[in-house]
Each structure stands twice: as C-alpha cells, then as structure tokens.
Design goal:
Strand content: 15-25%
Oligomer: single chain
Radius of gyration: 21 Å
CATH topology of one domain: Rossmann fold
Helix content: 40-55%
Distance between the termini: 39 Å
Number of helices: 20
Structural class: alpha/beta
CATH class of one domain: Alpha Beta
Bound molecules: pyridoxal-5'-phosphate
Length: 431
C-alpha cells in the first residue's frame, strides 16, 4: 500500500518508508492511499477465525508491500501474546480491557508492532535507526518495553524530571541495553519541543536515521484496529447496534477503530470521550477547530490540546462534517465527574476502572441516554494500578500490585540528565 502525506506536498511512500520516516518531509501525517473493505464473508464468519488470523487479514493490505506474509504472521504472533477480554458490567454496557500487556496500557500493541517492524527493516542494514520519543507517562514505558533488545534500533526517551509517576519512571529507566532514558530538566512541552527540533535539524538527519514512535507513526497507529475487531467477534451475537466509546487524547486509538469500520466492521457509532481538554468536543459543536494549551488532569495520558490524529479522522470522513457527525459524538468530563464515575462503577458492578476508562464510561452513558437500544463498549486503556493514588483515594481501598509492576520496582534507575537541545544533539551524535 502506498501512503501519502496529508499535507499533499510530499511523494507517496511504501509502508516501510512511512515507518522509517514517521512523518512526511512536508510535515504531514502519512495516510493510506486506499482502504479496501474486507470481503463480507470475513465478517460473516469472523467467529471461526483466531485473533491472529483476524489481525493478519486486517493489516495485510497496508503492510504487505514491505513485509512478507510469513514475517508479518510471525510479528502478529509475538505482538499479540496477551488477552483482550470483554467484560459485561451492566445491561448493554461492556468494557474492552486493553491493559493485559507488559506495561499495562493499550500502547503495548502499537509499540510492539512498530518495534518488530523496524527490527525487520533493519535486518541486513549497516546503519542503525534511532527512535526518539518524548513521553508524559505511558508512551515511554510501552516503547521502551516493546523495543528492548531489538537489533539495529536504538531508543532514546525524553521525560520531564519529577513529572512522571514513580512506576512510570521505573518502566523507562530500568531496562538498559538499547534503551536510554534522558531526564530533562523541564516539563513535557520542553521534551516535545526538543524532539520536534531534532526532527527538523538537517545536520542531525544527515548523520543518523531518526524516527518517531508516537501514534503519528503508521506502524503504531494501524495495529490498534486489531482489538476493535476482536471485541466485535465476541459481541456480534448480541444482534444489537454496537457503539464504541474511546477515551481519547491524541485520537490515534479511536481513529484506528474507524479504520476497522472502513474495512467493513459494523459499528453504529463512535464516541470520543475526553477530559477537560475538549478541543474535539468543541469542534463537534461549533465546527471550529481551535487548539489550546493542555490542562493537567487525573487522566493525564489524555492531556492533549491539539490532538495529532484528528486530521486523519476528518480525512476518513472525506472532510465532510455531516458524515463525521453521523459517525462520531464527543463529550468532555471534569475530574470530579471522573472520580464519581470510578465510584459508581465500583458500587454497581464491583469493577475497578482507571480514570481514563471512567471517562470512556461517562461518554458511553451520555450517548446511550438518547440511544438506549445500542450495545456499548468502552475501552479500558490502562490498568487502575497505574493511577494508584487517584483510584485508592476514590475507592478507599488498596490495590494489589501486579507482577509486571513488582518486577520494575526492584530494579535500579539509570538516566542521563540534560537541560538543553544542544545536549540532546551531542548525545545523539555520540559526542
Ligand atoms: C495514550 C492514552 C490514551 C489516549 O489515547 P490516544 O490514542 O492518544 O487518543 C488514553 N488512555 C491511556 C491510558 C493512554 O495511555
């Protein structure tokens, strides 16, 4: 499949080049030239397919020009080695749990797929690829874990000193090998700005092959459609219109669900649930896209003021607002509402939701007020233990610590302190 730049000023590229570049030379996001629906028989017989078979059929048209079938199947098998349970909580309300991977967040799926793809692309190459990523929390851990030990790939993660949780910091700084954590004296925006500057630095680009590992990268974005299809397989027998409510920040996850819909999966509606960073809910009301600086919330992985993937969503619906509105509703919720939802879900279903999942639940309930005949699935994007303080304080109980977290708590933190872009550049150039 060829990928084109949404800024329309760069040449089409293969899947491989889109992955290696991350972003197009004209600064546009890459987007597939075409999304061919899967045959109707695929959805008619989906119950008979394994998750690995479903994933292969879904991604094949996008990646097969760059990864041979046997390798693509191998990648899928190693990426998807944990479950994606659907848990029914109330009548017509279920949650799709995406937190059973190694870092307990849905980003494990895309990060691992991208890592394995890059590893394959660098086999037999002399030069190494450097993945540069800024994190405010979850991305760094998933990327570090997914890329650990992948040959030919070095990973450099920038994180703001003192501004990520203890567990998140350990997930970044205790792995070693090809993973380096740079501890930036500053905030997340400073980290993000340094990464952006590096991507525009022609001297640096001449010396090393740099790519990004956020959801801008097609190899991180597209595999996120897999678990929408897995849950569809389980819920098809409900014979009700299925709606997905996705707690959203950069809107990559929900956009991948919409690609599954374009492949032919029957979805009645999508709900993008946000915290008070409500750029998209405002757009859906006013048709005016006005990004603002992000505000800090308890669902901090969604503290995004200018969601990078929203342009892909608009493009999926041909930049036609009516078509978009028929498929997408978007609501925003405060921290107070989120905490009340955590409590409500626990009291009514004995289920412990994390703040992001709780925002998804709220979005679903809002939509179902007017659409009670739908079957709703909200995505649980992280394990509640990753947001221990908020969850324990809201529910007045102690959560057991899963083994994935126990392991990192016992390891030693190693990081390199930096203050300025020049220090980052010297580090990357090995000076
Ligand atoms: C990254 C993240 C999100 C937001 O996902 P997007 O694809 O950026 O919309 C939601 N919840 C959690 C726990 C995350 O880590």
């Amino acid at each position: 499949m060829k990928f084109y730049s949404l800024n329309n000023k760069a040449a089409d590229v293969s899947f491989k080049d889109a992955v290696l570049r991350g972003i197009a030379p004209d600064r546009g996001l890459y987007f597939p030239r075409e999304i061919k629906p899967l045959p109707a028989s695929f959805f008619e017989n989906i119950e008979e397919l394994s998750d690995h078979e479903i994933a292969f059929e879904a991604i094949e048209q996008f990646a097969s020009d760059s990864i041979p079938e046997i390798k693509l199947k191998e990648i899928i098998t190693s990426v998807l080695d944990f479950p994606f349970p659907v848990v029914e909580l109330e009548k017509n309300v279920a949650t799709l749990e995406l937190f059973h991977g190694p870092t307990l967040a849905f980003k494990d799926v895309g990060a691992r797929f991208m890592a394995q793809s890059l590893g394959y692309f660098s086999e037999g190459e002399n030069s190494e690829v450097t993945v540069l990523v800024a994190t405010s929390g979850d991305t760094g851990g998933a990327v570090a874990n997914g890329f650990l030990g992948v040959k030919g790939v070095n990973v450099v993660i920038l994180y703001p000193s003192g501004k990520v949780s203890d567990i998140q910091e350990r997930q970044l700084t205790t792995l070693g090998q090809n993973i380096t954590a740079l501890e930036v004296n500053g905030n997340f925006d400073d980290c993000q700005n340094m990464v952006k500057t590096a991507f525009l630095d022609s001297e640096l680009k001449f010396e090393i092959q740099l790519t990004s590992a956020n959801s801008i990268n097609v190899a991180r974005w597209l595999p996120q459609m897999f678990y929408f299809l897995f849950s569809y397989k389980k819920l098809k027998s409900k014979k009700r219109p299925i709606v997905f409510s996705v707690p959203s920040g950069n809107f990559g996850n929900i956009c991948a669900g919409m690609v599954a819909q374009k492949l032919g999966m029957s979805v009645a509606h999508f709900i993008a649930a946000t915290n008070v960073n409500d750029t998209v809910p405002r757009f859906m009301r006013t048709q005016e896209y006005t990004p603002v600086t992000s505000k800090a919330t308890i669902s901090n992985a969604m503290d995004v003021g200018d969601p990078s993937n929203f342009i892909r969503i608009r493009n999926l619906y041909k930049n036609n607002f009516t078509e978009l509105r028929n498929n997408l509703s978007s609501y925003s919720f405060t921290d107070e509402q989120t905490k009340r939802a955590i409590l409500e879900i626990y009291n009514s279903s004995s289920y412990i939701a994390d703040p992001h999942g709780a925002v998804g639940y709220l979005g679903l309930k809002e939509y179902q007020k007017d659409n009670p005949d739908t079957f709703g699935v909200f995505l649980e994007t992280a394990h509640p233990v990753k947001f221990l303080d908020v969850v324990e304080e809201t529910l007045k109980l102690n959560l057991p610590i899963p083994s994935q977290i126990q392991n990192v708590l016992e390891k030693k933190k190693v990081s390199v302190n930096i203050d300025t872009y020049d220090e980052l550049k010297s580090y990357l150039l090995g000076k």
